[in-house]
User: Which sequence fits this backbone?
């Protein structure tokens, strides 16, 4: 048994999602992780003695501030779509508001690293609301004092979703069938498996590399 002083306490938000669920399973198997704080509205179905679930809607940051004490890495796998959220405002509250809350608490508690799932094409100057929100989220999170902050920008994420998204399902199948045509600068648009992203998040959190942005082809190489 490895001493807790030699292992990590980590925190994950979005553990019931596609990427978050895969990451949670990876973390439970890592001998270098002794405790996993899971924040969210719904308790994950994955069971492990390492997991400590804290129910929250992220509206009152002070109520979860203690959860960040002694945490080495915060993993943010939070993400929704405007249709599911119900409005652009509701979407922004999730995809911008929650990462900002996590970054604020991480900085306050001197967390060493924060790894965030963003999106391919994220750009604070974009005319597209979704991509602009993701870009603004990256800028906001980066403004907090955290030694290592990394954003993963995956292309279309493939995997067994709990909710059926027909546009993403069709696009994922199409991109997988014709991925060989996406070469050169278009390689970044290839669909990427959720478990590859999850593994990349874990490996990046333990890397000495301080690269801030990881595009989809980088994620594939690191997590594949």
Assistant:
């Amino acid at each position: 048994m490895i001493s807790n002083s030699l292992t990590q306490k980590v925190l994950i938000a979005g553990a019931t999602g596609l990427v978050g669920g895969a990451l949670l399973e990876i973390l439970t198997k890592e001998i270098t992780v002794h405790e996993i704080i899971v924040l969210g509205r719904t308790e994950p179905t994955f069971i492990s003695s390492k997991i400590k679930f804290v129910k929250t809607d992220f509206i009152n940051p002070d109520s979860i501030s203690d959860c960040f004490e002694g945490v080495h890495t915060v993993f943010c796998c939070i993400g929704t779509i405007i249709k599911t959220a119900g409005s652009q405002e509701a979407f922004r509250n999730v995809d911008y508001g929650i990462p900002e809350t996590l970054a604020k608490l991480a900085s306050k508690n001197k967390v060493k690293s924060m790894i965030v799932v963003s999106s391919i094409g994220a750009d604070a100057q974009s005319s597209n609301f979704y991509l602009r929100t993701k870009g603004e989220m990256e800028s906001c999170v980066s403004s907090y004092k955290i030694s290592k902050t990394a954003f993963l920008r995956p292309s279309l994420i493939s995997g067994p979703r709990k909710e059926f998204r027909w546009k993403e399902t069709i696009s994922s199948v199409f991109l997988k069938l014709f991925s060989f045509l996406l070469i050169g600068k278009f390689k970044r648009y290839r669909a990427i498996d959720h478990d590859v992203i999850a593994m990349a998040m874990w490996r990046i959190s333990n890397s000495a590399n301080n690269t801030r942005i990881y595009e989809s082809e980088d994620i594939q190489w690191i997590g594949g």
Q: What stands out?
A: The chain has a mean pLDDT of 88. The two ends are 29 Å apart (CA to CA). The first strand starts at residue 8 and ends at 13. The beta strands are 8-13, 33-40, 51-55, 73-76, 113-117, 148-153, 157-158, 192-193, 213-215.
